[in-house]
Amino acid sequence: MTSVAIVTGASSGIGAATARRLAAEGFHVLAAARRAERLADLVAEITAAGGQATAVTCDITSDESVATLAEAAAQAPGPVTLLVNNAGGARGLDPVESGSVADWQWMYDINVLGTLRVIQALLPALEASGSGTIVVVSSTAGLTVYEGGGGYTAAKHAQTAIAGTLRLELCGRPLRVIEIDPGMVKTDEFGLVRFEGDAERAAAVYAGVPGPLVAEDVADCIAWCATRPEHVNIDRLVVRPRAQAAQHKVHRVSQ
Ligand SMILES: NC(=O)c1ccc[n+]([C@@H]2O[C@H](COP(=O)([O-])OP(=O)(O)OC[C@H]3O[C@@H](n4cnc5c(N)ncnc54)[C@H](OP(=O)(O)O)[C@@H]3O)[C@@H](O)[C@H]2O)c1
Questions:
Q1: Please, is 254 exposed, middle or buried when counting C-beta atoms within 10 Å of its C-beta (0-12, 13-18, 19+)?
Q2: How distant, in Å, are the alpha carbons of 17, 20, 28, 84, 146 from that of 24?
Q3: Which of 27, 192, 197, 251 has the most CB atoms in a 10 Å sphere around its CB?
Q4: Choice from 39, 187, 238, 239 to test ligand 1 binding pocket (greatest atom count within 8 A of CB)
Q5: How far apart are the C-alpha atoms of 63 and 251, rounded to whole Å?
Q6: Which residues form the Ketoreductase domain (predicted)?
Q7: If you take atom 3 of ligand 1, which residue's CA is the nearest one?
Q8: Continuous segment of H or E residues that includes residue 246
Q9: Strands 132-137 and 4-8, bridge-based pairing
Q10: How far does the centroid of ligand 1 lie from the alpha carbon of residue 254, in Å?
Q11: Which pLDDT band, with edges at 50, 70 and 90, does 219 fall under?
């Protein structure tokens, strides 16, 4: 029977690339996000390529909406063996001194509580499959801090803490927890969301960087980790572009 993979934040960037990749690997993908039209386009694309996918409109900040995702998982055409918690994002680049409480709240809600809510709702189905994998897409921002990144790094550190804690708590059950921590990934919307639609500011993040990661690179890491034999747990995979040795050490060529 076809295994089912759930990907949150599948309407763009890393989530969309992961949905495409997992469908190509033979999973039936439940592609979840808020924007139904984009999900419908993605499902049509996957289906045209010979894969299987279903769109599930879902807001991970809502209990009711996440319950709908769990219902869709219960009706999916196979055991739910993989959950990729990818939905997330950043807002603002303000110092702690003047950061917006609303931005911090948004980041905590989506990255931390959203991930928690989805894991809680899907864990029974993952365990019932006999061998479930939970992937948490955190960030190198979950491992280190940087100036202006206080709200995002706080949320990603908390998301990383969920992955580590859950691995301890689930030990002995047929479930594994994998944390993926990407560095700089050039996706279309991440920077636009962070800078409230300011395309110039968003583009400046990647200016002159030879070869930032792209969404497909991260999807490749997720697919590799998730398709190892079931007794193998890749606890954490940190992936950065070659040009980014650390958060503060980015090679740029003048343009
Ligand atoms: N880009 C980077 O440099 C980078 C680096 C490290 C880690 N990451 C992490 O990787 C993940 C994906 O990033 P990305 O670059 O692909 O960003 P993105 O293109 O902005 O994707 C974010 C996704 O999350 C979904 N989303 C937002 N709010 C949601 C909600 N309330 N409920 C359900 N879905 C929601 C969005 O879809 P809808 O708007 O349709 O809901 C979208 O599909 C995030 O967790 C991010 O923190 C990114």
A1: exposed
A2: 11, 6, 9, 16, 37
A3: 27
A4: 187
A5: 43
A6: 3-188
A7: 185
A8: strand 244-246
A9: unpaired
A10: 29
A11: very high
